[in-house]
Design a protein that fits this description.
The protein is of the alpha+beta class and 133 residues long. The protein has 2 helices and 6 strands; from the N terminus they run E-E-E-H-E-H-E-E. Helix 2 links the parallel strand 4 (76-84) and strand 5 (109-114).
Length: 133
Amino acid sequence: MTRRQTLNPAGLFDSQQYGFSQALVVEGGRRMLLSGQVGVDENEKTAEGGLGPQAIKALDNIDYLLKQAGGDLSHVVMLRIYIAEAARDDQGPIAEALRRYFPADPPPSSWIIVTGLSLPEWLIEIEAEAVLP
């Protein structure tokens, strides 16, 4: 049986307003590492509309992969979010997407600004780790 406990103690800033927790303790389960997901569909078409739609599609892709292994987004224990320099000043849609997909006890995350991603139209790549039952 997998147990999860998020930690958001007083004395640190309120990260939950941005859609992530400060830390997460996990016991038991199977570890799943996911490749970075970008906002593209199965035909390699990039989601239109900028950072928000690309973040949503990347999270949809993560959810799909987890379901293929018998899990779901509630099993995510860490996110690493790579944001293209071109989107540095437009990070609000990322927080909105995280709050939508992780409404309670969101996983910890790191947000990293990078010069660019593999294709110039890609603005975000999200890497995930999960612990499955």
